[in-house]
Write a structure and sequence with these properties.
heterodimer, A: 2 helices, B: 449 residues, Rossmann fold, 5-stranded parallel sheet
Amino acid sequence: MADLEKIYHNLKSKAIGLKSASEMLPKCAPEKLDRVITLMREAARDIERLLAELETEQKS
Amino acid sequence: MGKLNILVVEDNALAREVMAENLAGHAVDFAGDKATAERKLKAGHYDICFIDLLLGENDDYSGLKLIPLAVSKKIYSVVMSSCDTEETIGRAYALGCKEFYVKGNEQHNIAAIIARYLRGDGGKEAQEVFSEVFITNDPATRSLVTEALKYSATELPLMLLGPSGTGKTTLAQLLHGHSGRDGDFVAINCAAYTEELLESELFGYKRGSFTGAHENRKGKLAQADKGTLFLDEIGAMSQNMQVKLLKAIEEKSFYPLGADKPEYSDFRVISATLEDVQKLLAGNQLRFDFFQRVHGMTIALKPLAQRKCDILPLMQAFTKGKKRLAFEPDAKEYLLAHNWPGNTRELKRFVELVGVGTQGSVALETVKRHITPAAAPVKNTADTAITQEQYDYALAHGLAGAADQFALGIINRNLSANNGKKAASLSQLKISKCLLYAALAKARKAEGK
């Protein structure tokens, strides 16, 4: 996969993951909630990073 | 539903959590990379394997390479990815995966995949369906129901046709059970309400919206959220109500009576009518746009008179856990000759009446006493001996084909009447063993097709 294509794919994948996890949150067991929120934060940071990569890629 | 052994090959920890939540109740194992997945696939015994295509940010579709291994272990392989190009989907199917699932909406999609897997599990579930839920030995009805079940886990609307008592509600419940939808099965008979009452039943109302509305009440649409709304006798619905319901079905939102804000409900529609849909449309009783929205796949159920092979199995089912009934030969013959205009409903009532009032074998007199007199067996004359269905069959398959079919029908009925005892059939029908076995072989071949 070309770099740009990879970025788009990873962005889509992380965003879908976040959406699915947010749908799951209301019924999430309390002992699991902290772990899921931590993972969601990580995914959000990955999205930030991928968007920055996308901007760099488009400028070059 | 039994516990399934499932392997999820997924590199993303958050996605693994989502899968674990949605597969709760099954034995789920995880692999985060290709090597672990290969090891687990080789060592384990899984029913289903969910495979992510890209295992890592710089991965080159290593998930695809796992498909042949999973297939060789006879595992139901489901590829899941957010990369849904036609080329990738084509490659995954070419390698033998059973389903390609685009990530998102896991709650519904995963339940639907499991339902499809269970349906295809060696026909085990199909046998249970036809012997316990929708009882039928009629090959045409079986194939119709099997076809309908393929659509159960989709969002498509379904329309069930057939006279009263042919099992439309049972089939609707069966389809809901196989839909993978978490919500309830909510049924409403549209013919049982006036227009105003039907509106409040369907859409619900807010407190104070009319005299007597002392509290908020959820309507059937709201009750069917994430489930199935079964609209029976849709032909009885007014045009005005059809317009309102059409809007609610399309937008999945509606206003309860007296509400100023819309409410949302994710319901799937199954509708039914015993009337002739074409006549309803021609007579403007059914709006064409409403019909277009609800008819989806149409399933027409045959009356009991056209599937007499179901009479005795249905009787067995109705007496399950109660006093079992045994009929004297002439009583059984009379039962099978009866047309059962009330279909399964009439049959059930008959079984209950006979069950309470008799001891030992049921005699012909008892059967005659409890069968609806207005619908006694029709004496076969030259005109009535051939049904329209038989006549159409002869036109389609020729006279010889129709004669074979007719002979087979008689043989099957007689075998069933003799509890499968071939010797009795040979004697009663005065046929040779050769003819009996040839007819049965033909039937098996036809069913195989």
